[in-house]
Structure formats: structure tokens, C-alpha cells
């Protein structure tokens, strides 16, 4: 089954063709990062307009590169939530038109379920159940992936997401948007013990976490140093900060895994590209004797293939939509009938 996957929830227009949820036949991405960088973050109106300009041509390119004809497309899957509402709407409307014109089913896909499905593309042998650490620009969750379309949230952030935290501190350090990857690069040359950072523990669910205190601590340190006329050792600040973020995530991921009794741990989302987190997870998983799934960097960020992959499993579960499908800025990752 060839599925056309469409993603437009933030600042990447992406279209892909994936066969049977696992085999990527094409994966085309048009990033808008260069435009938004001028403003230091994503400007929603500009994002929507760029998606409109790009999506049709990108879909044609994805179909051509896949080596299939339009008639060989069996369904259209699209991110319908969550994201910037105007941006998501562009993808949803395009997908509706495409599904209608092709006479094939329309499959709504939750963006974060798509991120998790990136692991199915990278690891053909991976099947649920497994535990997934989801770390993206807007989400930080420990997800019990019981089945392809049946999940439970075991814990997560109560305030900022991991990606937001990286981007915010990177911005204060003067790094271009989105700063997560730049901060990660800078951290390579730093001393992770130079600046002590808080590792906050919350009351209640031990798998819940809070990043706002850590983020504020780092930003205060930068501002205080500037006021005192002291120079910050940027690589060491980045390394200390990354270590703290990782320390908040990795032990909890191991704890969540133990709680489920699974021996498979996957990671998903843009922040899954972070080298500190990848390194710490690798070490801890090895110590605990669990199988770790680290998708390649190309599958960590937003892409259309992950949407097409998850779309396949949503289709098998009967989760298809009609032409009344709407876009949503927020929506739980936990399944529900869409229409
Ligand atoms: O999953 P994603 O592409 O978009 C959302 O669904 O939100 O994640 C984007 C986030 C941004 O915050 C970006 O700075 C962060 O992922 N990111 C990183 C790295 N690469 C991307 N954060 C830390 N280290 C990285 N290497
Ligand atoms: Zn994403």
C-alpha cells in the first residue's frame, strides 16, 4: 500500500511516499528555517503562506521521486494536529483535495504519533510494545506504545518542552533560530561540570518533570555574568545545560521502561538528535541490557515519511476521515475517533 504523507504543522513543508508503513520511496522536505531565522522564531502567518506556495510542487516531486503514478497511490495521510493552526490547515486542505481527486482514503495522523513512527522506518524489526521518549519542540513525554495506535502517557513535562528550553537558551546566547542543534554543537568543546545547573524534582508522579527552573537558571547566569562584565564560557555553559536536560530525561526514561517491564526503548522528535541525550541513553541502555532504538538524525526532525508510516497503521486500525476533517492546534496523542 503506497501512502502519500503530508506534514505542515510548523516550519517544514514535507511530502513523502511510503510503502506499507516501512519502506520510504521518497521523502521531500522544504524547510522555511532561513526565513523565520530573521525574526528569531516561527512567524505563523509566514509559515502558512510558505506552505501554500510549496506544497503542490513538493507533492509532485515526492510522487515523481517515488517512481509511482498518481493511480498507484492508495491513501493520503496528513498531520491534522497539533501545530500552528494555519500551517496545519494548509496540509489538511491539500490532503483532502488530493484524497478526493485520487478517490482514495484520507488518514488523519497526530504529529507526535508520526514522530514515534519514524522508528518503524529506521528499524524494520521494531514492533510495539515499547517505551518511547518523545522530545520535540513542543512535547516531552514518556509514552507507553502498547500498539501502533494505542498509547498511554506515563509522564512528561509540566511546563516547557525540551526543544523549547534548548531554543530559548540558545537564543539568549545569540545563536540563530532554531538554536537546539547549534547549542549541541557548541557543547562538544565544553566542560559539563563548569556551571552547576538544577535538576528539579517534582511532587507527585516521579515521571513528570519541569524545565522552567533549569531554563531560568541558565538565562539568569548569562544575564548576571553580562551585568558583572564577566565572560561566559559558552561551550561549557552549553555542555552543563545539555547535561542537566539529559539528566532530567534519561533516568526517567529508564524508570518508565522498568515500570512497563519492556526491554525496548525508542526516542523520537527533533531533540532526539541531541548528542548528549543520545550518548547518555546509549550508556544507560547498555548497562540495563535493553535494546535502544536511536533513529538517524534525518528522521528525528519533521518529515512526511513518518506521517505516511503512522498513517498506514492508523488505516489498518480503521482510523480514516471524511471531508469534514478539521485541523487542531492541540490534541492529545491518545487515540480517539476523528470523524
Ligand atoms: O520535532 P521537531 O522537529 O518539531 C516539533 O515537532 O516541535 O523538533 C524541533 C526541535 C527544536 O526545538 C530544535 O531546536 C530541536 O528540536 N533540536 C535539537 C537538536 N536538533 C534539533 N535540540 C537539541 N539538540 C539538537 N541536536
Ligand atoms: Zn515535530
Largest sheet: 5 strands, mixed
Helix/strand-derived category reads alpha/beta
In terms of DSSP E residues, the strand content is: 15-25%
What pattern of helices and strands is seen along the backbone? EEEHHEHEHEEEHHHHEHEHH
- The neighbouring-strand order within the major sheet is 3-2-1-4-5
Q: What is the helix tally?
A: 11
Number of strands: 10
Q: Helix proportion of residues, in percent?
A: 40-55%
Mean pLDDT: 97
Terminal-residue CA separation? 23 Å
General shape: globular
* Parts with pLDDT < 50 across at least 5 consecutive residues: none
Present as ligands are: 5'-O-[(R)-(carboxyoxy)(hydroxy)phosphoryl]adenosine, zinc ion
Q: What value does the Rg take, in angstroms?
A: 20 Å
Short summary of the structure?
This protein is of the alpha/beta class. The protein contains eleven helices and ten strands.
